[in-house]
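call fold(seq) -> tokens
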Amino acid sequence: TGSTDEDKPALIPFIPDASRRNGAAILVVPGGGCTTRAVDHEGFLVAQWLKDRGITSFVLRYRLRPLYTRTDWVKDGQRAMQYIRSHAEEYHISPDRVGAVGFSAGANLIADMTLNAIPAKRQAADALDHFATKPDFMILAYGSMKLPATVDSVTIATLPPTFMYGTAEDAGITKGMVEMYTRLFLADAPVEAHFFQNGVHGSGFAIGDPVLGEWPGLMHNWMAARGFLTDRPQVSFKGVVKLDGEPLLKGMIIFTSVDDHEAPPVIVYMNNTGTGELGRFTVARDQGPVEGKYRVEVRQDATRWTSNSRDPFMIKMMAKQRDGTLTEDEIKEWSAYDRKRHLSPSIDNQRVFSRQRPNEKQDYVVDI
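ret:
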């Protein structure tokens, strides 16, 4: 409706050095109540942080009220996603690893445009309409949107992987975020949330804050674990872990890529619940590694451990307790069983194994 910058949506790109870029891209949407844009601490500082870690980012200059309405700024976000994907080759990014991070009103904007995403229209006259508008992942910082009651769990489950950050001090905003998180969680949508105790609204990446400043790192770890920082596909895998020929009863296995620092790390917790083979584990594809060499570290938390879910007697008694059918005689029987169990500590510190045999000098590496 005019000719100033405020009438012209735009993208400001932050392009990593060729030696650092990993092919991921993020649309950065500053907040400001849709009446201003916090383009510094929620825009350029964020984009620079991402650029320094190899992620190509684009700060969105979207239109504001009262000059424009929700329809316009949501459209600006949608067109931005289409533009980024349509220029993927030029910017050396993967068109299927384009996410969005929004702050406050910017978070509302990207949630809104994601819920109301436009699919790719391959036959459209407009070249940008050949590309879909839904982000491959979204990061909501102290902002969200109220999902309408008419939106069912099937629709919510189709939302992309979501990372959320807020603080209890920012109570009004965080309440809405918790409601959205709950809807995502109940729909089994992939979501991770971190809510800190203290912190004012508008903290941005909180760069330099020893407490809140940890959240961008948590976000970066989440992106790595989800496979967004590499163009190599994740795979599912399974195996058995043993120490001195015996299954690892309680602990974890940590797999770290040898030659690709952007590859997702994989952590397997061994609790030996259920009825399967002791020491056996399975990792789903969306939590899995990429193909290649992985360094293995095994951490042992106990040398003697039996989960209740593996003890036939405990399974029977706990089922009766849940059903309310436990008799006095069975309580006595259970009590006698408890007194005979060996529940004293079995270890005085976590034990770490990073080589296949004690006298080897090289780390234990496996091919996945």
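The CA atoms of residues 102 and 110 lie 6 Å apart.
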